[in-house]
Amino acid sequence: MVASVLGLLEEREAAARLREEAARLAGLLEAAEIDLERRVIAREELVEALAASAADAIPAAGGQEEAEGGPVPGSVVPLWRDGLAVTILAPDYQRVLAVVEERGRAGLGPLRAREITVALGLETTSTKIETVRSKARRLADRGWLVQDASGAFSAGRRPVAAPDDGSSG
Question: 77-102 pLDDT, tens per residue?
Fold first, then answer.
C-alpha cells in the first residue's frame, strides 16, 4: 500500500512539473509571437521608408511601376489621387481594399482588422491580424481607406498631403 501511495505522489509530482513546463513554454511562445509581430511591422515600415526615399530620388517611380505592368511586392503604397488605379497597389493591399469595399457596397459598417483577416481567409493569429492592421492603416494613411476613431476601416477615398521633405531620417 505504501508503494502505491508513493507511486501516486510521484505521478502527481510529474504531472505538476509537466504543467509548469507547459506554462513556461506557452509564455515563451507568446513572447516570440509578439517579437515576430514587431519585426513584421518594423520590416514593413523599413521597406516603406526605403521606397519613399527612392521615390524622392527618382520622381517618376510611380509611372515606372505602371509602365512595367504593375506593382512590385514590398513596394510603397502611393498617396491616393484621382485617376490612380487600384492595380498600382501590391496584391496584398488590393485584397485588403477589396474586402473593405465589398462590405461598404453591401451597406455594412466599418471592419476591424480581425474581421478583415477572417474575410481574407487567413488564420486569426495575432501576427496575421497585426499584419493586416498594418496594411489597412497604411492604406488609410494614404487616402485609399478611411479609419475611424475606434480603429475600424471603411471604404472611401480622400486626398492626402505629401509628407514634408525636411523630415529627419
Answer: 888 888 888 888 888 899 999 999 99
DSSP helix, strand, coil percent of the chain (3-state; round to 5): 60, 5, 35
* pLDDT digit string, tens, across residues 148-157: 999 899 888 8
Give the C-alpha separation, 65 to 152, whole Å. Answer: 30
Q: Which residue in 85, 96, 41 sits closest to 62, CA to CA?
A: 85
Closest Cα to residue 96, out of 159, 104, 48? 104
**Helices 126-141, 91-105: crossing angle, 10 deg rounding:** 80
Nearest to residue 33, comparing CAs of 125, 116, 118, 132?
125
- Minimal CA–CA distance to 48: which of 142, 165, 148, 117? 142
How crowded is residue 145: how many other Cβ atoms within 10 Å of its Cβ?
27
Distance CA 21, CA 19 (A): 5
* Band (114; pLDDT cuts 50, 70, 90): very high
State the pTM of this model.
Answer: 0.55
How far apart (Å, rounded) are the C-alpha atoms in residues 134 and 129?
A: 9
Q: Per DSSP, which regions of the chain are E strands?
A: 145-147, 153-155
